[in-house]
Structures are given as C-alpha cells and as structure tokens.
Amino acid sequence: MSTPWALHGLVHTAAIAATTGAIPTVGPPDVEPPDPAAADDSVRGPLAPMVVPGPRSGGYGTLVAGNAAGLFVGVWNDGSYSSTGGVWWRGRVTFLKGSQQLVAANATGVVVGDAVSHYNRRAFRWSAGRYQALGLLGGSDEQGGRRSGALAVSPTGLVVGWSTTDARTTRAVRWRGTRPQDLGTLGGPSSSATAVNAARQIVGSADTGDGQSHAVVWTDGRIHDLGTLGGPSSVAVAINDAGDIIGTSDTPDGSRRAVLWRRGRDRPVDLGTLPGLHGSSSSAIAVNNAGQVLVSASGPTQGAFLWRSGRRIPIGGATATGAGDDRVEVTGLNDQGVVCGDISTADGRDVQAFRWHSGRLRRLPSAGGAFGHAQAVTPTGIVLGNSATTQDAAPQAVWWPSAPATAPLALGLTALPAAG
C-alpha cells in the first residue's frame, strides 16, 4: 500500500524500525451477557505497547485517533501553550510545523485539528500533503477574538466544528473547501457542531431563544431541535451512518442521562444507568454502525455499559447487579463492539488501560510504571493512548496491538531529511 500523502509542508520526520506484520481484524460483535468467569482474560499474555517517540525526549505525548489503514495521529506537549502534532504511519512518525493539536483522521487519511497558541486557535485540514487553514466566520479585535476549532471529519472529508463571529458569539460551521458555512442556532446566540456521518448529517448543540441549549441535527443545512428528556438542556455528541444520534440530556428531576435519538423517531430514548449506582447519572460516549451505544455511568463509583436494543451489558469492574470495586472510565468504541478505556482502584491509583470485547476485559500492560491510558480504538481493534515508561517521567504516546506481537519492536531512530 502506498503512503496516502506526500511529505510536502512537513518537518522533522523520524523512522521507527518495527516488525508488526499485518494488522489483524476483530471478529463480529457479540452482545450476549458477559460470563463472570471470563471477565478478565489478561492471563493470556501481555500485549506490549509500542512507544511512538515525540520530537523531543521527556515530553508528554498521546495518540488520539487512527484509521483502519494503520494511520495514527497524536499530540506532544511542548509547554503550557504549545504542542506538536504528528502522524504515525507504518513505522514513521511525521511532525507538523508550528504548534498544532490534531483531533481526528478519516479512512482516506484526511487529518483535522487546530493550530494553537496562548490566545488563538485556528482550525485546519491536512490532506495529500497539503496543509489548509480553514476560514473564520469573523471575530472581534480583542485578544483571542478570532478563533475556530475543528471537531470532526466525515468519511468523505467534510470538516465540522465552530468559529467566532463578528457579533462575538461562536457558531457551528461546516467548511466547504476552506470557506465556513454558518449552520445557525435555535434562536439563541451560539451553537457548535461535534460530529458528522457519511451522509453529511451534522450533530451538536444550539442555543434556544429562552436561553437553553438543545441537541440538534443539521440535514442539508437545515437545523432540527432534538429536544430533551424533559429537562432544560441536552447535547448531541455523535451520529452513526444510519442516522442514530447519541448525547446527554437533563431529566425533569435534575438528573443527567445518556440519550439516544433514533432515526425517524421524535421521542428520545433514556438509556438509563447501572442498577447498583443508585441516584447515578450517565452520559453517552460513542455509537457504532451496529447500533451499540457506549455509556459511562457515575454514582458512588464510576462504571460503564454497552447498550443495544434496550439491553445494558456491564463493562469492566461493573457486575450484572451493580458496580464493582474498580473505577471504569470508557473512551472508545468501534464497529465490531470493541471498547477501550481505563480501569483503576477505588482510590484512583494504579490506572491501567483496557480493551473489552464480548464480555471479556483485557488489561493492557504499561510500558513501565503504574499508569496507562486508552484514548481511542481503531476500526481494527488497535488501542491508542499513552503510558508511563521506565525512561521518562511524563507518559509517552503508545499503541497496543490487537493481537500479541510475533517479533520484538525495535525503537531505534533514524533521522530523515526535513521536508520543504
């Protein structure tokens, strides 16, 4: 397979010699209730994390997104107001010029993020080796008065997010080329777009005329109020290719609950919480194209479950009747039902990344020390995030393979010529 972009406009490329073999795929989803005896299969052997070095030694780094082709994007902090964005592809990590925060990549290698400084933020797209700053709706002359952010990119390359305006508000936008289109509001001053699907349906939130904020969907540029579970506000965070939308909503009693808006139905579905977390709240994290929804639940402790067709399958430290002793934070879900996240002791110490599938949780080893964090899971089941190492005080960017490596990873760095 050829590299999906050229190196034009990039600088400081490092090569990592690695023997990883083909990236294995994950089997079909299985939503049967978990077998308690198989709740932790970490005894089958460690899946050693692969470290992706940053542009400077010792700095904090993390991988945040990836695609099925094995392209991963990450961020390495340079200081309080500066960071370096990088793209890992087949053993090579390429760092962008300037201070950049990357947030997403689609299947064809279109990468989006923001150029950042102390007061400013500007959305950009990077595709086929071409860096494009995306336009603003407007802004004010005050410090930080002209800003924008890219939050998602569709399979076809449509970028959505937000931008400041001349009226000193922020509005949801989609970019046609580099030109922003104001997606409007529900009568209030502000809005923001958070996700987009293959059909170019966009979701997010928008202010109403009475000062609340509601979840919305934009279809063909037209805004539709998704409503709430009876409380004052709601927000949509993701949409699958079938048009199912997830988010969080207030309820009449003041709780916050994970919610699903099914395509073609006006009434939102309360996804509930775990039975043992009495009086708890929940929030929807991700939805896949199989209709599964990943939900985080909090109460006396932190738990999570996978929802599908009215069934809640507990994840990690949770049991069928409540929460276990461990705290579980979930961060990602792919179309095969693979979940990633972190599991820690009740006191919040010894944080460890995990991968979960079909009722079985595998704790992922760190690269050294007692900390590992899972940020996202790719379509092929590779977990991305960061980990403590034996050499560095700050966590380093890592990825965990979806099957045990057949050969050790060599981390020798080879300098390559800087790109123009």
Calculate the terminal CA-CA distance, rounded to whole Å: 24 Å
Beta-strand residue fraction:
over 45%
Q: Give the assembly state of these chains.
A: single chain
Shape: globular
Largest sheet geometry: 6 strands, antiparallel
Q: Give the integer mean of the pLDDT values.
A: 83
Q: Any low-confidence stretches, pLDDT <50, length ≥5? A: 1-45, 318-323, 405-420
Beta strand count: 34
Structural class: mainly beta
Protein model, in words:
By secondary structure, the protein is an all-beta fold. Helix content is 0%, strand content 47%. It is built from no helices and 34 strands. It has strands spanning 10-16, 50-51, 61-66, 71-79, 82-89, 92-96, 100-105, 111-116, 121-127, 130-133, 148-153, 159-164, 170-176, 179-182, 187-196, 202-208, 213-219, 222-227, 234-239, 245-250, 256-261, 269-270, 281-287, 293-298, 302-308, 311-314, 327-333, 339-344, 352-357, 360-363, 372-377, 383-387, 396-400, 413-415. It has a six-stranded antiparallel beta sheet with strand order 3-4-5-6-1-34, with no helix packed on it. Strands 2-33-32-31 form a four-stranded antiparallel beta sheet, with no helix packed on it. Strand 16 (202-208) and strand 17 form a beta hairpin. The two termini are 24 Å apart. Mean pLDDT is 83; it is low at 1-45, 318-323 and 405-420.
